[in-house]
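Sanity check record (used in CI):
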Amino acid sequence: MGEAKRRKTSGSDAPRGKRGKAVWIGAAVALATAVVIGLFFVTAPPQPDAEGLPVAAANADPFPAELDRFGISVGAEDAPMVVREFADYQCPACGRFSEAARRLKEEYVDAGKVRFVFYDLPLKQHANAMPAAMAARCAGDQDAYWAMHDRLFDAQTEWSGSGDPVATFTRYAVDLGLEERRFERCMNTELHLEDIEQSRRVAMQLRLTSTPSVLVDNILLTRPGWGQMSAVVERELASRR
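Expected output for Thioredoxin domain-containing protein:
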């Protein structure tokens, strides 16, 4: 059978197998597009005026700013807003929130709009949480608090179950260019134990027992993460303009 007759018989220039493949590809593309659009609407940050965003409790007092001396702060002292996080370095949810905290520093703290305060709240069920908090503060003695803070969260799964966390944290300190013997001495003497306990007492005073507990001024987030936090920050900043 000639090519012209074959085309007339089949009624199409394309072989049936190729037509079927094209249909499946088209369907797959359409499905992928629908998934992407759906994920966008599910994960997109809420708008600052969205209903359901947390607000301060009725007749809530301002956060007692004098307590911030027990945390570690970054940002302008006169920033119009303060975001405070109470966290445990070994807590997986805190590890996930660390990305949001890092983005907050990049987009709001560096712009002078927000001051960020990190409070240590090591939970008793996490054996390495206290040494991790100590490691961050010991690194802070050598002007590397936030570098160690980020490293601890980034490598959480590496040291979380370690039987010798001090050795691991000392390696991190060396990687960050810190003086090894000074760092080890700080860790072994538990130089900042009282500072960490004071931070934990602040959480108890405020009745914060879960980690991470995140407050935008005196507003406790119900779903700590970039979406809700950034929406509340934007709403509160707009109300003060």
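DSSP finds ten helices and five strands in the chain. If this sentence no longer matches the regenerated tokens, the check is flagged for review.
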